[in-house]
Amino acid sequence: MRGWRQWLKRSLVVGLGLFAAGIAFIAWANFAATRVGRGCLFDDPSEVPGGGIGLVFGCDPWVQGRENLYFRYRIDAAEALWKAGKLRGLIVSGDNRSRHYNEPDKMRRALVARGVPADRIVCDYAGLRTLDSVVRAKEIFGVERITFISQRFQNERAAFLARASGMESAGFNARDVAGQGGFKTKLREIGARVKMWLDVHVLATRPRHLGERIELPDWK
Fold first, then answer.
1. What b/e string do you get for 12-27 counting C-beta neighbours within 10 Å, with b at 16 or more?
2. 189: pLDDT confidence band, cut at 50, 70 and 90?
3. How many CA atoms lie within 13 A of 37 on its CB side?
4. Going from the N-terminus, what domains does the chain have, and what CATH number goes with each?
5. CA dist 215 to 40, 127, 141, 142, 176, Å?
6. Is the model's pTM score more than 0.90?
7. At how many degrees (to 10) do helices 130-139 and 179-198 cross?
8. Nearest in space to 86 (alpha carbons), one of 114, 40, 120, 52
9. Which of 88, 110, 131, 220 is least surrounded by Cβ atoms within 10 Å, i.e. has the fewest?
């Protein structure tokens, strides 16, 4: 009986130690993205460095029959940054899983409707994840200096991935989404940042699709 109690005590100590280590790792991975984003992400268009290529991260304008505010606010932000004269052109990067689901084309049409010239927008149809969009911007489109356009939580993660890829980055933070939908997204973001850290430092994850180099127009 005494030996069983000692084994149980040791097991409990080890289990608590592993649990504490896991919590510490999750906290560190989440902080890592926040730390990289400091000083390069902005809420005011006037503060964003000019002359860059904007990268808008994709999502669908509708979710379960309701307007997706993440989509609207990202388009708002891209429009504001364009009209502030901070961008030479834009890459809209997202999922194109079927003929009826095409995030880049929907973003492109929305931006053109807001007054962004169509010839200043390029679609990346293989931006399946933030990592894919960031790495493809460099390796497929040849962008070395990028301006991310999304909510702050995604911009921070993108800035971390850009640094790991040897890119110079800035970001303009779109308005965030409040309420239950925003809360669920924040919970998912905790796990996304753990995956981000593992992708860079352990798994050496690459985009699902690469392919041939695509030359951007000679935007002046």
1. eeeeeeeeeeeeeeee
2. very high
3. 22
4. 2-203 (3.40.50)
5. 26, 17, 6, 7, 33
6. yes
7. 60
8. 52
9. 220
Q: How far is Cα 155 from Cα 163, in angstroms, rounded to an integer?
A: 12
Q: Is 2 exposed, middle or buried (0-12, 13-18, 19+ CB in 10 A)?
A: exposed
Full 3-state SS string of 1-30 = CHHHHHHHHHHHHHHHHHHHHHHHHHHHHH
Which amino acid is located at 20 in the chain?
A
Per-residue confidence (pLDDT) for residue 1, from 0 to 100: 60
* Closest listed residue to residue 50, CA positions, set 76, 88, 92: 88
The CB-based long-range contact list for 194-201 (8 Å cut-off, 24+ gap) reads 194/25, 194/26, 194/29, 194/30, 196/29, 196/33, 196/130, 196/131, 196/157, 196/160, 196/161, 197/28, 197/29, 197/32, 198/29, 199/131, 199/161, 200/160, 200/161, 200/164
Map residue 202 onto helix, strand or coil. Answer: helix
- Reduced to 3 states, what is the DSSP secondary structure of residue 206? coil
* pLDDT value of residue 15: 76
Place of tokens 């200096």: 145
Please give the average per-residue pLDDT across 44-53, as a whole number: 95
Instruction: Report the residue count for the chain.
Output: 220
Residues 77 and 61: their CA atoms lie apart, in Å, by: 15
